[in-house]
Amino acid sequence: MPVSKNLVKQRFDRKAETYDAHAVVQQEMTAELLRPLQLARHAMTASGPVSVLEIGCGTGRLTERLLQLLPSAYVSAVDLSPSMLQLASRRLNGDASRCTFIEADIEQWAAASADRRFDLIVSGACFQWLERPEQTLRQLLRVTRPGGRLLFSTFGPDTFQELHSAFLKAYLALGKQPQRHGLSFRSLQQWTDMLESAGWRVHVLRHKTAAQYFPAVRTFLQSVKSIGANASQASPAQGLGMRSLMAEMTACYERHYACAAGIPATYELIYVQAERPS
């Protein structure tokens, strides 16, 4: 069951003010994503101003760093959430003259955008929300100038593996048909295949795992909710059925995964560097 974009927008709108305080992994992903730019920034800016598209700018942390790293850059920053865009605009303050904020669904916006507009496309922890990733990658290739780059980070299928395992155990213990809770993330190989099929030349595609630890399962779930990322593909359940499921899932999570450091939550982090062939 696909996740409603309107629901995603509403959740990020509601959690915009608490996002930065809880998006610890996303901030680490931003730093890692920008490392190739730090090495290549002089070569990128040598021939003049750089036109940048940022997809899913959120509260503007990555936007701010892009403007610092690339002094001649002009950034078009797209996000679905108006509340996130307001915070991003506020963060930039004096640098706002070098950035245009656009409230839009990138999949629709890219399809309507002009050819060969951008030298660089950057996206931090956003591509997991794409409904039509291969089609969107084709559109992004079209709006990129020959020789232009695509840098993005996203989450892989081992993300929250403990949570998914605990839900499965809970459904089976209660004699219910298992459902997927949360997004289904695409694998490294799936991204490779889609990028190449769309026409991108893939230079670097790598992944790693990282873990956060929480005092309790409830704290972990609240942290995910506090950044608006608590979308689910499961059918809605209410009342005693949901309460018993959550209680059993929590018990399974603690029984099988709790350790001295607390309750672990694993993230699989994927990083991509690609280029539009000249």
Automatic annotation (TrEMBL):
The keyword Lipoprotein does not apply. One of its GO terms (molecular function) is carboxyl-O-methyltransferase activity. Converts the free carboxyl group of a malonyl-thioester to its methyl ester by transfer of a methyl group from S-adenosyl-L-methionine (SAM). It allows to synthesize pimeloyl-ACP via the fatty acid synthetic pathway. Its EC number is 2.1.1.197. GO terms for biological process: biotin biosynthetic process; methylation. It catalyses: malonyl-[ACP] + S-adenosyl-L-methionine = malonyl-[ACP] methyl ester + S-adenosyl-L-homocysteine. Residues 52-148 form the Methyltransferase domain. Pathway: Cofactor biosynthesis; biotin biosynthesis. It comes from the Bacteria. The keyword Lyase does not apply. Keywords: Biotin biosynthesis, Methyltransferase, S-adenosyl-L-methionine, Transferase. The gene is bioC. It comes from Paenibacillus abyssi. This is Malonyl-[acyl-carrier protein] O-methyltransferase. CDD domains: AdoMet_MTases. Pfam families: Methyltransf_25 (PF13649). Belongs to the methyltransferase superfamily.
